[in-house]
Write a structure and sequence with these properties.
single chain, alpha/beta, Rossmann fold, 8 helices, 6 strands, about 40% helix, binds magnesium ion, binds zinc ion
């Protein structure tokens, strides 16, 4: 479910590298009781600056997030909109920009095709951008984020924030892992500087 119109010139959108970010546990602190209001949305240290650095380097930063609290009746659509307005404002005050924000509002039992580990949100991103995101980095803190990235042909990256440490401990195959989003941004920017980026 795309929230915002994609920004930027169409031609630039075709050429710029894309990075897909999970929200809870990657950009902001997660809660097992769900993030239900803007006041509960608290950024992880360094995440806003990481998005700003990626934005300044020409990356299209897109968020893809499971928000089953909506389908469970715990988060109203209005609250989700307000939470996302707070997040967007925080990112913009740090100097960053989101090129898109996509979420799945469904409960697991609804069997939708957009709740990660399904790749539906990635397909929505591709439809909105008008291009493939195969090989693009996709950052998450849970096994379902990695599985969705794999299913979409993206490059799964795990961060140890949020559920990430527990996810790392339970991995059945190795995956590219960093301490947090700031470390991911460092790695992607160094890669791009070397001209060796796989995100294209
Ligand atoms: Mg998460
Ligand atoms: Zn869904």
């Amino acid at each position: 479910m795309p929230a915002d119109a994609l920004t930027g010139e169409a031609a630039a959108v075709k050429l710029a590298p894309v990075v897909v970010l999970d929200r809870d546990g990657v950009i902001n602190h997660d809660s097992k009781d769900f993030i239900r209001s803007p006041a509960e949305w608290l950024p992880i240290a360094g995440s806003l600056e990481a998005i700003a650095r990626l934005t300044r380097a020409g990356w299209l930063v897109v968020v893809a997030t499971n928000q089953s609290g909506v389908g469970r009746g715990l988060i109203t659509p209005e609250s989700l909109t307000a939470i996302h307005a707070r997040m967007t404002a925080a990112i913009e005050s740090a100097g960053g920009q989101l090129a898109g924000l996509f979420w799945c509002p469904h409960r697991p039992d609804e069997g939708c095709d957009c709740r990660k580990p399904a790749p539906g949100l990635f397909r929505q991103i591709e439809a909105a951008l008008g291009r493939s995101i195969a090989g693009s980095p996709a950052v998450g803190d849970s096994a379902r984020d990695l599985a969705a990235a794999r299913a979409a042909g993206a490059r799964p990256i795990l961060v140890r924030t949020g559920n990430g440490a527990a996810t790392a401990a339970a991995l059945d195959e190795p995956v590219e892992t960093y301490a947090d989003l700031a470390a991911v941004a460092d790695a992607l920017l160094q890669e791009k500087a070397r001209g060796a980026g796989s995100a294209s």
